[in-house]
Amino acid sequence: MDLLVAVGHSWEARLVERLSSVPGVVVSRRCVDLAELLSAVAAGHGDVAVVSGDLRGLDRESVAQVARHGVRVVGASPDGSEARERELRQLGVAGVLHPALETDEIARRLSEEDPDGIAGLALSGDDERPDLSGSGPVRAMRGPSVASAGARAGEGAAERGDLSQTPEVEQPRVVAVWGPTGAPGRTTVAVNVASELARLGRSTLLVDLDTYGASVAQFLSVLDESPGVAAAARASELGTLDLAALARLAPEAAPGLRVLSGIVSAQRWPELRPAAIEHVIDLSRGLADVVVLDLGFSVEDDEELSYDTDAPRRNATTLTGLAQADDLVVVGAADPIGLQRLVRALQSLPSVPSPPPRTVVNRVRAASVGPDPGRRIAESLQRFAGVEALHLVPDDPAACDAALLQGRTLAECAPSSSARDALRTLAADLVGVETRRQDGSRRRRRRG
């Protein structure tokens, strides 16, 4: 086993001597800094990289970069202190060793992928998480308790859609909202679906991950100066992001609805590195029952366009969101150009790691596709893209314009809107809840 060692200079010799005493282990290179370590890994050297928290520039992305080259990352500390080990684990390093360990234990930690059994740990229903409200520990329910969620659903049933049952507690889910270029209404759908999920009794976190035109903050009248996802990504890179810190960065925009705003300027996209975004999404599952991701349009793997394969990739944020999602909502526009783009987008999805899509056609109207627009759209998508199930959102410009002007959701400013009714049905479909339409008829969709 070839080791690459990059640790603090004051105790490097002691650690190297200890590692060299382990049978079958060879310290092939002692790297003076992070740049040398990354260069050695890129050149194909080493089986395991041993790093310490005091290595200048070490962050979550550099740990992930080493791992992408097939080199396992193991942490090291001079004295085995809990604080140093915690710092490394927050950067995504699973195993940590120190010179005082027995030889057999060092060999085990170097060989095993997850020697301490901590990788992939997630909050479960019986775990406690940091208090986000100042009233002591709370259960990892990801938001209000089941009782309070049910109470909200019962108290405002008529206004929220006449729920016929209280939602069952399930594992937190990540819903990605994506669609092709041309402004088909991705953010409109994401914001209003998130709002409806909160009104259905599910605590919801809306995350703006659009690296081309983030607009959730403006949509909901959230201060543009709010740090949001960029601050969360930076904290993740530095190993300081935890559930309480994420909650502080995602204020409540409405009861049960938190918002993690996007980057203020599209030029700041390099701040959103894949490893950090993956960590933010994973941690978000502990903050809400449902996490809704508003993604950018492009899924081109722009890494292939760069000579430097470790350079920042603008589309990596969208690709990471799609890969981490449990449900995918694909939004297209109801006009000839929008439908053509939607067909091509659906055809490109099999090459991208993502869950099966739920297709939504937005702004459905006869003026753009002819009489009986729903039937025409359904037939076209079934013929050219094999779409069997379809969600149609009627065009309601007056309601949507009023909501945008007021910085509110359709449920708040136009509760009787036909577009709101369709988006409420979509939200109910995502969580398997029965609702009633505006005409009073019941409708239940099964999640799948």
From TrEMBL:
Spell out the GO cellular component terms annotated for this protein, sorted alphabetically and separated by semicolons.
Answer: cytoplasmic side of plasma membrane; cytosol
Region annotation (Disordered) maps to 117-168
> Which key words tag this protein in UniProt?
ATP-binding, Nucleotide-binding
Coiled-coil region list? none
What GO terms are given for molecular function?
A: ATP binding; ATP hydrolysis activity
Q: Which residues cross the membrane?
A: none
Instruction: List each copy of the CobQ/CobB/MinD/ParA nucleotide binding domain by range.
Output: 176-402
Q: Which InterPro entries match?
A: CobQ/CobB/MinD/ParA_Nub-bd_dom (IPR002586), P-loop_NTPase (IPR027417), ParA/MinD_ATPase (IPR050625)
Which GO terms of type biological process are on file? Answer: negative regulation of cell division
Query: What top-level branch of life does the organism fall under?
Result: Bacteria
In Swiss-Prot or TrEMBL terms, this protein is called CobQ/CobB/MinD/ParA family nucleotide binding protein
The taxonomic lineage of its organism, from the top, reads: Bacteria, Bacillati, Actinomycetota, Actinomycetes, Micrococcales
